[in-house]
């Protein structure tokens, strides 16, 4: 993770994606590996699209589609662990918008527009958002921090969260 984070901070998003892809392959239950992979692919897609806007779009079209497709898969996989993270919906919307713009035919454009609409509706319907989750070992236990932002719930309404901590092999150590 530190190597991937260093590459990401240095703006080497392709290298960061490679590291986080490897981390995800080593632990398919790692929310952080998939989230960091999605973030790296998002930045890589932004760079590729910016370069394409300056010219040479035809040369990069397939590379852009490939990165966008993988970004969508990584964000969807992360949502399995982190369903109340709207950043993941923002990434999915970014993918569908750009795939629609890159589409070669009207049928594909309409399909991507429908998916974009679905994601936008899901984004707007989300009752709360959880972000900046951090877990740290503290003595024999774990310390958790993060932010839960109320978006649509009535003031004082309870929210029940379920947190599972997985061990090295992916088995649940605490729930």
Can you describe this structure in just a few lines?
The protein is 61% helix and 15% strand. The protein is of the alpha+beta class and 175 residues long. The strands form 2 sheets. The chain has a two-stranded antiparallel ribbon. The chain has a two-stranded antiparallel ribbon with strand order 3-4.
Element string (H = helix, E = strand): HHHHHHEEEE
Described by strand count, sense and barrel closure, the largest sheet is: 2 strands, antiparallel
Summed over residues and divided by their number, the pLDDT gives a mean of 89
Oligomeric state of the chains in view: single chain
Rg from alpha-carbon coordinates? 18 Å
Principal-axes shape call = globular
Per DSSP E runs of 2 or more residues, the count of β-strands stands at 4
Low-confidence spans: pLDDT under 50, at least 5 residues? none
